[in-house]
Amino acid sequence: MSELSHRPVGIIDSGFGGLSVARAVRAYLPEETLYYAADCAHAPWGEKSDAAIQARVMVLVEHLLALDIKALVIACNTATVTLRPYLKSVLSIPVVGIEPALEESFRRSKTQRIGVMGTTKTVTSPAYLAQKARFMPPAHIVDCACPGLMECVERGDFTGADTRHLLETLTRPLVDAQVDTVALACTHYPFLKETIAEVLPAGTTLVDPAPEIARRLEVRLTEANRLNTKRTLTDRFFTTGVNEHRQALLKTLWREDAQFEGI
Ligand code: DGL
Fold first, then answer.
1. Fewer CB atoms near the end CB (10 Å): N or C, the chain?
2. What pTM was estimated for this model as a whole?
3. Any catalytic annotation for residue 146?
4. Does the pLDDT of residue 28 top 90, yes or no?
């Protein structure tokens, strides 16, 4: 404990996806206060240039820094592969990024045939390609860019016909390649787990990296002497483009009493 321990942990994503990480952090570190910042008005980030992603990420980060966060979780694979070294160099607080869980996927796969679903930006990034090279061979890793998929989550369509149809089309290369394990390398996709499981062959293992990120956050907070032992503040949620739909979706994905404040 230090005088900084009671301060909130900042969590950022382009939209609602980072809430899958916030849920894992809340479950694993219940004494931490969470300040969540999304960029719903400018999402998706997955098809933007590096410079555009950096500009949007910095809007959220500066908003949270002004509220005295003690650590930052980049709950977005796209932002992590694009900006992690930059954010670590410019921020003086612990920064935790997200990984596509290749190691866990490799461990859990029986056939070493692994699929990775992510944004176009993530699966074509040098950072991801370098990680992937560490496992190939012996693993056979099939990338699956999923343009349009995060928008299903942003619309609140988790199990509808449109989402299912899009998923059937997007995941065909994974089915053809007979992967037995799929890493969910975009934080929006865990909210589509049920439908993803339906369109993939029965028994396919889906790997969500969020629990591992929560454990990593605990390590970083402990190292920095910033782990909280008693939560005294209330969680807060921020986004660009507050509207009724987004307020309702936040209640569905977090809690009935949660409410967005504007950025
Ligand atoms: N949730 C994001 C990720 O993990 C980004 C989705 C997007 O904005 O395209 O990559």
1. N
2. 0.97
3. no
4. yes
